[in-house]
Here is the input.
Amino acid sequence: MYDTIVVLLIICIKLCFLQVLHKILSSKMGRTADAVEIVVENQPQEDADTDSVQPPIQENEKQSEERKFMAAMLSLAVVICNENMISKEDFACATPRDGAVAKKLKEILQVNKQSTAQCLRIVKLTCQVVIVVIEVKPSCIAHFNEHNFKGTLAEALETMSEVDDCMLFAGNECEVIKPARSLTSLVKEAHELLKTAQEQGNWYV
Here is the structure.
């Protein structure tokens, strides 16, 4: 009876991870509409004096909800992997081989390079997912390199370092990893893992 329960629990966790991964990959975050939002928000005030370029309140609320949902999915993915709820073999089978994960994670990073607490949380969670993927499935290194992840992470850190310092000082109960880690430490770890894997040739594993 106990063994049956364990087997069923493992199956449920696998299915949960597959659903989480699907939600992340199929998310519209990072596509054209979000890119337009970034351009509009960063546009100088004198160039944004018409109603046509201002995103509606409803649209901002929708994007805020999308960010909350994405943060929840990324957080769940991090917990499942960090707590060893899924094996390396199952993780490898669940993730696409065509670089879709690396591409989507880069899109998420790029569209959330804004100095807000909500965007910071998504960027930090994305960094944690990158670290997990590198550790569990080194063959993804090639895809991360194709999308210049070192540069993307460095840009995100440069943009969000001040808000990150403020959030660490104020404390954040929403952090997945306790104690809370700075974005600097997460980016540094990701960079070191990418460098080490390259030196060892693990991207062919």
Remarks:
- The chain is about 70% helix and 0% strand.
- The radius of gyration is 18 Å.
